[in-house]
Design goal:
This protein is an alpha+beta fold. It has 7 helices and 4 strands, in the order H-H-H-H-E-H-H-E-E-E-H. It binds FE2/S2 (inorganic) cluster (FES).
């Protein structure tokens, strides 16, 4: 996941689609991709353009996990806390990440570098403990592996 380009113009995105309700999702997807989240201002602009009521657009953004109403970090870290991962030490991974990043699970670091969350079973229990870093599955995570991953991302 890359940082949003600073010069992206929200109006340019809005103008990509005709002002009609069926383009709501396309607009929200493009805004999410460009800015890593859908701000309240962007949501208002989309609603004004498409004629979709704010409450309905808000419901759509909260229903689909691919949309975020909060600014997200450049790197998305998801740690599985399902049963298999829990038994193999996933809580320690979460604690370690929270301490090192200085952010609680569910939060984003102040520099917008990392977002951290926990999930329940990623469907890869045989590889426990598992985490997903920017959509890449990381199997059998250890403190050493975590170190390496964070070092790589810090250097980007
Ligand atoms: S419990 Fe973690 S992948 Fe299933």
């Amino acid at each position: 996941m890359s940082q949003p380009a600073i010069d992206i113009d929200i109006d340019e995105i809005i103008e990509r689609y005709p002002g009609s309700p069926e383009y709501l999702i396309f607009l929200l997807q493009d805004i999410q991709a460009a800015f890593n989240y859908v701000s309240p201002e962007a949501l208002t602009l989309v609603c004004d353009h498409t004629g979709v009521p704010q409450s309905q657009a808000y419901a759509v953004t909260t229903f689909y996990q691919s949309f975020s109403l909060e600014p997200k970090g450049e790197h998305d870290l998801k740690v599985c806390l399902g049963t298999a991962c829990h038994l193999k030490g996933a809580p320690r991974i979460v604690e370690d990440l929270e301490r090192r990043l200085g952010v609680a699970s569910g939060g984003t670091t102040e520099d917008l570098k990392y977002s951290l969350e926990t999930v329940n079973c990623l469907g890869a229990c045989a590889l426990a403990p598992v985490m997903v870093v920017d959509e890449d599955y990381q199997p059998a995570v250890t403190a050493k592996k975590l170190n390496k991953l964070l070092k790589q991302m810090d250097q980007e």
